Amino acid sequence: MMTTKRIIPCLDTTFDESGKAVVVKGIEFESLRYAGDPVELARRYVEQKADELVFLDISASTDDRATMTDVIRRVADVVTIPFCVGGGIASFSDFERVLGAGADKVGINTAAVKNPELIKEVAGTFGSEKIVVAIDCKRRFEEGDGKTAVELEDGRSAWYDVVIYGGKELTGIDAIEWAQKMQDLGAGEILLTSKDRDGTKDGYDIPVTKAIAEAVDIPVIASGGVGTMDHIYDAFVNGADACLAASIFHYETYTVSEIKEYLRGRGMG
Q1: Which domain holds residue 197?
Q2: CATH code of the domain in which 71 resides
Q3: How far is the CA of 40 from the CAs of 57, 97, 222, in angstroms?
Q4: CB count in 10 Å sphere of residue 49
Q5: What is the torsion angle, in degrees rounded to the nearest 10, for the CA atoms of residue 76, residue 77, residue 78 and residue 80?
Q6: Is pLDDT at 2 greater than 60 in this prediction?
Q7: Residue 130 DSSP class
Q8: I want to staple 197 with a disulfide (CB 3.0 to 4.6 A). Which of 91, 131, 224, 238 is the partner?
Q9: Which residues are tagged catalytic?
C-alpha cells in the first residue's frame, strides 16, 4: 500500500514597509510580491485540508532579528494541522521560543551550516520529529573536488551547492552530503528547495530531489518551482515524501483539495 503523500502550503512571511507581517512570493528568492495575510491564508489551507503548514520568516536571518513570535502565535491559534516554523532560528533558545509559541516543528537552515552541532543538541532535547533541516541549494556546473555529480534532465551533470542567508551566500557544501550529515546529527526531515527553480513554475528540481531522497532515510519535502499538478506527481514518484507549494495556492491556481483529488486519480492518497 502506498504511503499517504503530504501536501504542504508555505507561508513565506516578512514585514512590509509599515511593519505589518505579510506573505510574499518571489522568483529565485528575489522580486517579492504580496500574496496575503498569514493568518487568513493559514485558515484557508486548514479548510482545504492541507496536511501540514510551513511558515518561513524569510527576512529574519538577513535582518539579524528574532523570528516573529507574535505572528506565529496568531497562526497557531487558527491551525489544527502540524505547523512548522523556520527563519531566524539560530540557537537552542530560539527552538524553545518557537515551540512555545505553538509550532509543532522547527525549521533551521543558515544556523545549521554555521553550527551543525546545534542539530544534535536540539534533537536530543526535543526529539528528531521536531527538527526540519531546510536545505536551499543551487546547481554548480564547474567541477567541484569530491562533490556529488548529479545527472540533469538534459544529460549534463552538476553538483548542488548549499546556499544560506535566503540564497544570498554560496557555502561550497555539497547538498547531498549535507543531507546525510544532518540525518546523522538528528534531523527528522529535510525541506529541500532548489533556488534555480524557486517561483519559476517550471517544476521541482527532480534530479536533486531524487538524489537526496535516495541518500537519506528520513522524509524529504520537495520545494521550489511547482506550477502544475503533474509537477507534484513527478516529485512523489521520484522519492519526495511531501510537496511544498506557495504560488499555486496563494494565487488560487489550484486548491489543496483539487490536488489531492488529482493524486487519488493517479493512485496516490
Answers
A1: 7-263
A2: 3.20.20.70
A3: 16, 23, 24
A4: 12
A5: 70
A6: no
A7: G
A8: 224
A9: 12, 136
Number of domains in the chain: 1
pTM: 0.93
Question: What does the angle CA 211 – CA 213 – CA 214 come to, to the nearest 5 degrees?
Answer: 65
Return the residue matching grid coordinates 543551487: 138
Cα within 13 Å of Cα(13), Cβ side: 30
- The rounded percent of the chain whose pLDDT value lies above 70 is 97
Instruction: Answer for the pair 192, 216: CB distance below 8 angstroms, yes or no.
Output: no
Q: What is the Rg, in whole angstroms, of the alpha carbon atoms belonging to the chain?
A: 17
Report if residue 139 sits inside a domain: yes
Strands 30-36 and 53-57: unpaired
- Is residue 269 situated within a structural domain? no
Residue of 81, 133, 132, 123 whose CA lies nearest to 102? 81
Residues contacting 78, CB < 8 A, separation 6+: 39, 42, 43, 46
pLDDT digits (tens, 9 = 90+) for 116-141: 999 999 999 999 999 999 999 999 99
Q: Is residue 231 part of a domain?
A: yes
- The single residue listed with the C-alpha cell 502565535 is 73
Q: What is the pLDDT of residues 72-102, one digit of tens each?
A: 999 999 999 999 999 989 999 999 999 999 9
Contact 133, 190 (CB under 8 A): yes
Q: In residues, how long is the chain?
A: 269
Take residue 141 and report the three cell numbers written for it. 556546473
